[in-house]
What does this fold into?
Amino acid sequence: METLEFIIYPDGRVQEKVTGIVGNSCAEVTAAIEAQLGQVLSQEPTSEFFVNQVQQSSLANTQATYSEW
It folds into this structure.
């Protein structure tokens, strides 16, 4: 499940935490929100950022062998 969590501090700072989004696509999801919030002071990628997306192929290799009896 993809979640965005925001903590708004009394001094106006906003902490954003993204979970459930793999790879760099989290930056695409949060770009518009961050543009409206203001200046980004720091970013700390989580372990999910570094996960490579695995794509499965439905192509199966088959090999037929014939007996030479």
